[in-house]
Structure formats: C-alpha cells, structure tokens
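Figure 2 data, in text form.
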Amino acid sequence: MNKSFILAGFGLFIAGTSLVGQITSGTISYTRTVKVKFQGPPQFQPPGGGGEHIINQKLELLFSGQQMLLRNVQESTNDTPEEEGAVVVRVMGASDNNEVFTDLTTRKKSSLRELGKDVYVVDDTLTDENWQLSTETKSLLGHTCRKATRQEIRWVKQMQFINDEMKLDSILDTIPIVAWYAEGFGLNGGPEATGVLKGMILEYDVDNGRIHCVATEISKEVKTKEIKMPKGKHITAAQYKILEADFRRKMMQNRGMRMPPPR
C-alpha cells in the first residue's frame, strides 16, 4: 500500500500516489528554449549571421493539492555570442526572477514581474482556451501523453530597419500552440495553459518551436512551504500592460527606436 509522510524540520513533503494511482504532489523540472529573431543591417547580425538568438532556461513546477508555483532555477543563458558593439537581445517577461503562483480552486494566478527596479505581482484569472484534442499520443518520462492543439491570435512585435532607422511595429499574427499532457496527476497543471487540459502538461510548443518547453524530471518530493504567493506590489494584468508598454517605449526611445502604440 502506498503511503504519505512528512519529514519534520526540513519542510519536505513526500507523497505517494493515491488509491487511484494519481500523483497529487511533486516537483517537475523543465527546460525552456526561446528563439528571438532579429532583422537588421549586417553589422547588427549575431556572429555567423542568421539573425536569431536562443535563450535557454531551467524551470521547476512545485505542486500540491490544487496549488502550483512555477519558477526559474537557473540563470538564463544566451547561445548567441556577443561581440563589442553588437545589439544585445533581452526578452521582456523572461526575467530570471519570475515566479507564477496558481490556485486552481479560485482559478487565479499571480505572476512576479520586474520592470527596471520595480517589482510587481500581476494578478489575473485563468482563461478557458479552446483546445482541439487529438488521439495522437507519445511517452514522456514514463507517462503516456495526449496531444492537444489550438491557435491564438495575438499582436506580436516586429523589429526592422527602414532607411537605416530602427523601428518596432505591432502586427496581428496567428500562433499555433501544441501541448502534450499526461493524465494520472491530481490536478490540471503545467508551465502554461493551466487548469484547462485534464492532466499535467509535460511538453509545450509555441509557434513551431519559437518557444519550446519540455519536462526533464518528475519527482514526488516537493517543498510545500515554498508554494506561496510571490512578494511585490499587486496590480492587475491590465495595469501591468500599460506599465510595460510605457517601460518599453522609454527604453526604445533612449536607443533611437520608434514604438507603436500599445495594443
């Protein structure tokens, strides 16, 4: 018979599977790769050309009951070497201090975000995405995963050079998203799209590999005391969008770039 017990003094909770074989608590490690394309004059291209920067991140998802905490566990690395005078690419929203606390009971999530020296906790509500479920399956870390797909229409930023002037525009684009989720977990979670698919997302792909996240390890050990609300100034998602757009605009203006109005 599976058992659950607590190691006092270490804040470490070790849980076995439930009577129906579900994993109700644990820690999942992920690797996430973000590809950033950059178009501009040859002098601004990364070494070797191609105009693409690759950012690698290590994440972990702590979960217990109906609560989760997603956080970075290793400083992001940029696979594109930097040269003197080259443009350095930074991804907004990919800070190494980011944390996302989710409560599936209340369907609320709170994300830690940094804008310069300011730290915010962005409170938002989980949304019901329209996923298309497939009969296709594959195995990840010993778990049979089912495939789900959807498309998201969003405004994306596009950087380009016109008459040697750097310009950043917003364009409307349709983004394909693929998730592989495993049943047998006590909650509907994952690094993205939590609370919708009936299982734990172990692999997630956005825009044909532009963002790719995959689980590398699943442990039934979890530090439950660390699954908590991040600290910072609480604001709504709408308020943060305005602050972020203003921050981007000021940053780009300092570099002689023109910013489009926020969408």
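Caption note: The helical segments are 237-253.
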